[in-house]
Write a structure and sequence with these properties.
Helix content is 48%, strand content 14%. By secondary structure, the chain is an alpha/beta fold. The protein folds into three domains: 108 residues, Glucose Oxidase, domain 1 (3-Layer(bba) Sandwich), CATH 3.50.30.10; 107 residues, Enzyme I, Chain A, domain 2, CATH 1.10.274.10; 317 residues, TIM Barrel (Alpha-Beta Barrel), CATH 3.20.20. The strands form two sheets. It has an eight-stranded mixed sheet. An eight-stranded parallel beta barrel has the order 9-10-11-12-13-14-15-16, surrounded by four helices. The longest helix has 29 residues.
């Protein structure tokens, strides 16, 4: 048995198709005609552009807009002036072949992305590798395995799957993914969940331990993989698959039901989205609202700021699709570790503690007001709630609210309609905000707890640092005390509290959060029906009793062990 990171739930049993990373052998050659080499480079780019346009169209039709956007960013990388200039300069200065110059330039860019702390920026390294390999293959005339021509069902096993791999494969024949590298936020994991294909990532050396044609069975929830299982092990997995399928059928029955405990406590189960296209998954899983719309995706993978009109259309699309259901839209959360190529932001030693989110917006009110104008114009099309990220003091919240109120008056003076009632809230992700939540609760309409950053800041743990990853724990008593404090302080002022971090969809944490009084849980769409069933099968009295006991425990390990045993 091999243990990895469960990235997409489900049980899969099938033959292996091993995608070995064919090392492209690129040798340095001195050339006489540098113009000819640059022409070869441009020919390779033209072929790559045609392939990427076809992949974009295919992905848009078969998967969705967000996934297709990956290839828009790949097309932009092909035209990146800085990269192309460096390749041409190296060809001219060193009189070397195009593929050698391309390799050197791309490797230096990839190294820069790889050393960044932010998971999003690390994904850009994977994208650039994909683009580099496409160009290098074109220059060398080397073909790649065609995953669109599979003649039988397979589990793909690879060091990692590129966006091109997942976009081009025959999705009716691929029944699972297993990869050496990656985490729950990697492209492979996100794509697997979107396609609802079981997947395990972070298996270290699965590509060395299996061969083409081996049979594997795995559990995409627990991260357990068995290579060439015997009859007893295979029977166990077949039983697990039957149980899983029956459970999914049972969860379908939870659609159109209230998220209400046996003794009448009703909560809201909402979903997190990054683009308007994601709303389809929310509606398919019967979400009761949008708990977090991450607007930064509108600003990324492009060469210039989105216009007010572009933003307005995106927000309007989501609000109209959700009808009367609440839609919480977070204002721009970029800067520091999430770079925008068209914003001149200096490199920082500690980007997570730096010039980002509301700090950037309060400084760059020109950017902030364009977004607020778009949001306010869209407010008449649905049930909009606006949320400010990374607030650490009352002064920041009041400054952001004042700019919002000013923008609202400007629009009305222009004769533009704005909704009469728009709730305005803030993220609780900085410990100082949690500690003064009694003060902040007097001024906000709601809180949404962003546990991903709250855990990181409270425990002083870089969540991307594998050496100390064991210290990054949602079960930490300090984190749980801050969450309890925030909920109690908000309720004293009659305000509601949501949660939009990963913790909100964790089946081991849901009973505890219910007992602590959380009003809204926002999670990945695929988790919503399971969370509803969990809530509908218990009482608030039971959840409160659980919470009281948990708050007496002294260590993360004791809390985790107790909650996992309780849920089991």
């Amino acid at each position: 048995m091999i243990q990895g990171i469960g990235a997409s739930p489900g049980i899969s049993m099938c033959k292996v198709m091993l995608l070995t990373s064919q090392e492209l052998e690129i040798e340095k050659r001195i050339v006489d005609d540098v113009d000819k080499e640059w022409a070869r480079m441009n020919d390779a780019r033209k072929i790559a552009q045609l392939d990427l346009l076809a992949l974009h169209k295919q992905t848009l039709e078969s998967i969705g807009e967000e996934e297709a956007r990956i290839f828009e960013s790949h097309l932009m990388m092909l035209d990146d002036p800085e990269m192309l200039e460096q390749v041409q300069n190296q060809i001219n200065a060193d009189k070397v072949n195009a593929e050698w110059a391309l390799k050197g330039v791309c490797e230096s860019f990839i190294q820069i992305f790889d050393t960044m702390d932010d998971a999003y920026m690390k994904e850009r390294a994977a994208d650039l590798r994909d683009v580099y390999e496409r160009l290098a293959r074109n220059l060398l005339g080397v073909k790649k395995t065609n995953l669109s021509l599979l003649d039988e069902s397979v589990i793909l096993v690879a060091s990692d799957l590129t966006p091109s791999d997942t976009a081009s494969m025959d999705k009716s024949k691929v029944v699972g993914f297993l990869t050496d590298i990656g985490g729950r936020t990697s492209h492979t994991a996100i794509m697997a969940r979107t396609l609802e294909v079981p997947a395990i990532v972070g298996l270290d050396n699965i590509t060395e331990r299996v061969s083409d044609g081996d049979f594997v069975a795995f559990n995409g929830d627990s991260g357990e993989v068995i290579i060439n299982p015997d009859s007893e092990e295979l029977g166990r997995f077949q039983n697990m698959k039957s149980d899983y399928d029956a459970k999914r059928d049972l969860l379908t029955a939870m659609k159109n039901k209230a998220s209400k405990t046996l003794d009448g406590r009703t909560v809201e189960l909402a979903g997190n989205i990054g683009t308007p296209e994601d709303v389809k998954n929310l509606l398919r899983n019967d979400a009761e609202g949008v708990g977090l719309y991450r607007t930064e995706f509108l600003f990324m993978d492009r060469n210039q700021m989105p216009t007010e009109e572009e933003q307005y259309i995106s927000y309007k699309t989501v609000l109209e699709a959700m009808g009367s259901k609440p839609v919480v839209i977070r204002t721009l959360d970029v800067g520091g570790d999430k770079e925008l190529s068209y914003l001149d932001i200096e490199k920082e030693m500690n980007p997570f503690l730096g010039y980002r989110a509301i700090r950037l917006c309060l400084d760059r009110t020109d950017i902030f007001k364009i977004q607020l104008r778009a949001l306010l114009r869209a407010s008449v099309h649905g049930n909009l709630k606006i949320m400010f990220p990374m607030i650490s003091s009352l002064e920041e919240y009041l400054s952001a609210k004042a700019i919002l109120d000013e923008t609202k008056e400007e629009l009305r003076s222009e004769g533009v309609s704005v909704a009469e009632k728009i709730e305005v809230g803030m993220m609780i992700e900085v410990p100082s905000a949690a500690l003064i939540s009694d003060i902040l609760a007097k001024y906000v309409d709601f809180f949404s707890i962003g546990t991903n950053d709250l855990i990181q800041y409270t425990c002083a743990v870089d969540r991307m640092n594998q050496k100390i990853h064991h210290l990054y724990s949602p079960f930490n008593p300090g984190v749980l005390r801050l969450i309890k404090l925030v909920i109690e302080n908000a309720h004293k002022e009659g305000k509601w509290v949501g949660m939009c971090g990963e913790m909100a969809g964790d089946k081991h944490m849901i009973p505890l959060l219910l007992g602590l009084g959380l009003d809204e849980f926002s999670m990945s769409p695929i988790s919503i029906l399971e969370a509803r069933k969990q809530i509908c099968d218990m009482t608030l009295v039971e959840a409160k009793r659980l919470a009281e006991h948990i708050m007496t425990l002294e260590t993360s390990e004791a809390i985790e062990e107790y909650l996992k045993e309780y849920v089991k």
